[in-house]
Amino acid sequence: MSQSTVANRYAQATYELAIKQNVLTEVSADLQELTKVLALNDEFIALLSAPKISTDRKKELIAQVLTGAQPIVINMVQFLIEKKRLNELSAVAEQYQALAAAAQGSADAKVYSTRELTAGERAEISAAFSKLVGKEQLNITNIIDASLIGGVRVQIGNYIFDSTVASKLEDLKRVLVG
Q: Where does the record say this protein resides (predicted)?
């Protein structure tokens, strides 16, 4: 989760507007899509950060690129550009997602495994671990990590549940070696 005070404030403001306009899910989806696109497109970020391009032109570009997005998202990104804080966009989106998930009774979880989880496995993990953190469901992001050897590691906020073979071998090594 973001530690940036600025990102937290922008995320909170965006969240409150989304609640007020009853578009919480739509804004969440738009921010997820936007962060995915920007993560894959370094040239676009460089363009939006270029000092030779005016702030007004950058805002126009964002309006053109985000034509199908919620106005809240477009305005928030344009405001970040105006305040020269576009580098905070991913942190704002991450914090917003956490606020939206909490409001909807869910939490984001990263599940590390040696292979892609099936829908059934995701549902079982969501059911088992959501109760442990007091949520109704988990939004699972599956991360493949072959070094785990087997098992899964679940990270929900600051909680980490590790039942991987690699961690069990490490524990055994500590006991035997001292």
A: Cell membrane; Membrane
Q: Which amino acid makes up residue 150?
A: G
Round to whole Å and give the CA distance between 130 and 132.
5
End-to-end C-alpha distance for the chain, whole angstroms: 35
- Residue 52's alpha-carbon distances to 26, 55, 100, 143, in angstroms, are 33, 9, 36, 39
Domain shared by 154 and 66, yes or no = no
Do 94 and 127 sit in the same domain of this protein? no
pLDDT (tens digit per residue) in 90-108: 999 999 998 998 888 998 8
Contact predicate 162/153, CB 8 Å: yes
Alpha helices in 66-88 (DSSP H): 71-82
pTM of this structure: 0.71
Question: Are 75 and 23 in the same domain?
Answer: yes
Mention every residue, 6+ apart, whose C-beta is less than 8 A from residue 88.
4, 6, 7, 10, 80
